[in-house]
Design a protein that fits this description.
Blueprint: H1 2-27, H2 30-55, H3 62-82
Length: 85
């Protein structure tokens, strides 16, 4: 069951990033760009969670996962603060 949940979370983040990227290329709104970058980072974080829990359960990748998620959230925060008009 955990495999399905981790996979669906990663796919949802990846699809959201793709849709935001497509919208950015159409409208050139920089907030969409920062949101797409953020969701791509969250997809990487979910992929790292998948690897951490299912592929390499003996190795703790929580610092890596948290760092990736922090960078993704900082990108979104930057976009919300500096690029919203």
């Amino acid at each position: 069951m955990a495999i399905a949940i981790y996979t669906l979370c990663a796919l949802t983040s990846l699809i959201s990033s793709w849709l935001l990227s497509r919208a950015y290329w159409r409208t050139r709104s920089r907030l969409l760009l920062w949101s797409a970058i953020s969701f791509a980072g969250l997809a990487l974080s979910n992929l790292a969670l998948w690897v951490d829990k299912l592929v390499l359960p003996q190795i703790d990748l929580s610092v890596l996962r948290t760092s990736i998620a922090l960078i993704a959230m900082l990108a979104l925060l930057y976009g919300l603060v500096w690029e919203s008009e």
